[in-house]
Each structure stands twice: as structure tokens, then as C-alpha cells.
Design goal:
By secondary structure, this protein is mostly beta strands.
Length: about 425
């Protein structure tokens, strides 16, 4: 896998060299704040865009109905991204490289490593595209297919954080068909490594197979609005997309198939034997005249082989008393829904809200008292967009969290009440 990624990186370099060596003249398009630098050949066949963004973040957490009066504050660079993307129209080739300079992200973006996106695509025609490499997968919920700099609240939902695999390495087939004068059907298929990204060592388990089907009854959104949250384009006519997704991951070695080798099991003969992970979801997005509404449902389950008999501990020793319940207690199993919406005023001030709910299975890591064991999340937020697009914005949101009985604080100490979380984030794009 490491060698494949080295080859992929080399191909990116070669495509860039060919692109500019064939162009007689390089033209820099007029710069629009937040939309990156766009270079093109004189005949407009070759194009390359350089872009990026920074997101400094401050968050404060308070435990309510508790004797602890402390405000837990955190200051960090939430995201720092750099992206290189390009196309060669006659050759029907596109490519993208995105790196994160913060060290791998956290929460719903905790994919680890430096390289996020690294792929090459080939357009068979205007309706069919095959991509090879590392990118976000269509088998996640809809929110995870949207750029982090276009979020309408300060961060992604708890549903995305609980069940998302974020990015994967493999083959991705995207298609689009106009089935009526306006309606569009978009089926997608993905075959990936099933272990997230940047697998440098052994690639544990088998492949992950999945796909998605989206239906757009009123046609496509303006300016890629299907992949962005707030309705900055103020759609002149209603736009709507509804989709279903499913994936089956053969042998995962972490909690949800987003990393490789962090949780390993063996059979009685010390052969590696891992549980399978299945996930399905339904989601939709509606936009019209500044209003947006996003809804998502996700359900995740596991199949645990009865032959599993040993668990490899962090120190390399074996736990030989392993039951199916023990395996499931280390996995993200259960269901959740997310409903969020908002309105963007003409002065580029937006008011948004979100309700998220997590319902774990009886045996699931979602019952962990320190990191999860929370059921309901209620968020309200306000954003100020400082430019016409996503060039710069300031966002503040507040979340009330229901902590179940037996929950702990960040230090592992029992808490009696609920939680209140405030986040402030600034986005600067170039």
C-alpha cells in the first residue's frame, strides 16, 4: 500500500509537468478572494488550482449540575489545509492533492497523517468517472462529503464523529444520469482498503464494498451546492437531494474502519481474525432562497466470528477471555440521526440550529462513559460571512449535551449532570 501511494504521488507530479510543458502560455485567472489561484493553458485545455484555508478554534466546556465550577478551555488550529487540483480536458484526466498541516485532525476529521486527498480520475464521458487513490467515501453520511470550510456550524455533528470513516484508499466509480427533463440520478460505487487512510504498515482485514444512490428531482444545485451546507448561492428555485448508502467492511481493526491495526484479534491458532462492520444510511439536503435543511440517519452493526479467542493488548500480551460482547464494546455500534438547518440573510449573517441523537447498541463503544454515553445534542449558532463566498467567516455556536447516568468528565471523574459546550472558529481561505 505504501508503494502504491508513492506511485500515486509520482503520477501527480508527472501530470503537472506534462500539463505545463504542453501549454504554450500559462494564464493566471482573475483572483477572487477565497477561491484559490487558477492557472490555465492558453487553449484552456489544462487547468490547475492552488487553494487552502486556516481554521483557528477556541472551545469552552462546562459541566452543569456538578460541584466542578471549572471552565475547560481549549485553543488550537482546528484545520490547516493546502490543496492542489487540476484537469486535462482532452485527456479526460483530473487529479487532487490535499494535505493537512495540523497533524491529522481530531473529532469527525481525525483521519491521521499528513496526506488527506490524493487521487487521479478518468472521465469516460460526461456521466461516468473512475477515480483511483485516497479520498472521502460516498458510503459515509452526507455531511462528510462536504468541505470542512463550508460547514454552517463550528464543527461536524456527533453522528459524523461517531460513524464516519472519513477518507479511504481504493477505487471510486461516480455516475450521473438525467432521467427526466430536470431529475438526475447519481449512483456511486466504492471498493476500498477499509482501513481509512495512510496505511503504511500491514493492511489488516479485507476490502470494504459499498455505494450510494442520490436522487435530485429538481436538477443539480448551483455552484456545487450539493456538497456545501449553507445556501450562499440563495437558490432561485427549490433544490433537493435524497440518498441512501450502504457499506460492508470485511475485517476491521479499529472501532469503525477508519484506522488500521489499533484493535486486533486472533483465533486459537494465533491467526488474525477480525469482526466485520456493516453500515447503512438515509439522508437529504434542501436549499431555497437562503434556507437550508440537512437530515441524516445512520445505522452500524457488526458480525463477530465465534472463532475469535484472543485480544492483543497494547503491551503485546494476550487476553484469552474474549467474548462477542467484548469485541462489540470496542466498536462504534448503534444508530443516530442528525437534523440541522438555518437561514442566511442578505447581509451574510446566518442563524443555524442542529439536533443530534445517538442510540448505541447494548454492547458498543458509544456507551463509553468518558468519550460518549451522551444521547442528545442541541446546538444553535450564528455565523458572519465576510465575503460573498467562503473566503472568510466567523462562527459561534453553543451546544447543550445530555449526559447519561454513569458519565465521566474529561479526566475520568464521574459527573451528575449535563454539559454545555461553546465554540468559536474563524475560517480564512485563499
Amino acid at each position: 500500500m505504501a508503494n502504491l501511494k508513492k506511485v500515486l504521488t509520482l503520477l501527480f507530479v508527472l501530470v503537472s509537468v506534462v500539463e505545463y510543458s504542453n501549454a504554450q502560455e500559462i494564464i493566471l485567472s482573475k483572483y477572487k478572494f477565497g477561491e484559490g489561484l487558477l492557472f490555465s493553458g492558453k487553449d484552456d485545455n489544462y487547468q490547475m488550482e492552488i487553494s487552502g484555508y486556516l481554521q483557528p478554534n477556541v472551545e469552552t466546556k462546562k459541566y452543569l449540575d456538578n460541584n466542578d465550577a471549572t471552565l475547560y478551555n481549549r485553543f488550537r488550529m482546528r484545520r490547516s489545509r493546502f490543496q492542489l487540483a487540476g484537469t486535462a480536458k482532452r485527456e479526460k484526466i483530473s487529479y487532487q492533492l490535499e494535505i493537512d498541516l495540523t497533524g491529522g485532525g481530531e473529532g469527525a476529521d481525525a483521519v491521521g497523517g499528513l496526506v488527506y486527498d490524493a487521487w487521479i480520475g478518468y472521465d469516460f464521458n460526461k456521466n461516468i468517472k473512475l477515480t483511483f487513490g485516497q479520498k472521502s467515501t460516498s458510503t459515509d453520511n452526507r455531511e462528510l462529503g462536504m468541505s470542512s470550510r463550508t460547514l454552517q456550524l463550528a464543527d461536524r455533528s456527533p453522528v459524523s464523529a461517531a460513524f464516519g470513516s472519513i477518507r479511504e484508499f481504493g477505487l471510486f466509480l461516480e455516475t450521473s444520469y438525467k432521467i427526466t427533463k430536470k431529475a438526475v440520478l447519481q449512483p456511486e460505487v466504492a471498493i476500498t482498503n477499509g482501513d481509512g487512510i495512510n496505511v503504511i504498515g500491514k493492511d489488516h482485514g479485507g476490502f470494504k464494498f459499498g455505494g450510494r444512490v442520490d436522487y435530485l428531482p429538481f436538477g443539480k444545485f448551483s455552484n456545487f451546492g450539493q456538497f456545501r451546507q449553507a445556501d450562499l448561492m440563495r437558490e432561485l428555485t427549490p433544490k433537493f437531494v435524497v440518498g441512501v448508502n450502504y457499506s460492508y467492511n470485511v475485517g476491521i481493526s479499529d472501532r469503525r474502519g477508519s484506522q488500521s491495526g489499533t484493535i486486533l484479534y486472533l483465533d486459537k491458532n494465533n491467526n488474525e481474525l477480525l469482526p466485520d462492520y456493516a453500515k447503512y444510511g438515509v439522508d437529504f439536503l434542501f436549499k431555497y432562497n437562503g434556507f437550508s435543511l440537512l437530515g441524516e440517519y445512520v445505522n452500524a452493526s457488526a458480525r463477530v466470528p465465534s472463532e475469535i479467542s484472543k485480544y492483543i493488548k497494547n503491551d503485546g500480551s494476550y487476553d484469552t477471555t474474549v467474548f462477542a460482547a467484548d469485541v462489540k464494546n470496542r466498536m462504534m455500534l448503534g444508530e443516530g440521526y442528525n437534523l440541522q438547518g438555518g437561514y442566511l440573510f442578505k447581509n451574510r449573517v446566518a442563524v443555524d440550529g442542529r439536533v443530534s441523537y445517538l442510540k448505541p447498541q447494548t454492547n458498543s463503544f458509544l456507551n463509553n462513559p468518558t468519550f460518549y454515553n451522551r444521547s442528545n445534542y442541541y446546538t444553535i449558532g450564528v455565523s458572519k460571512y465576510l465575503a460573498r463566498g467562503y473566503g472568510a467567516k466567523i462562527q459561534l455556536d453553543c451546544t447543550y449535551i445530555n449526559a447519561k447516568n454513569g458519565s465521566n468528565d474529561l479526566n475520568g471523574n464521574p459527573i451528575k449532570g449535563n454539559e454545555f459546550l461553546t465554540r468559536l472558529i474563524t475560517t480564512i481561505s485563499f
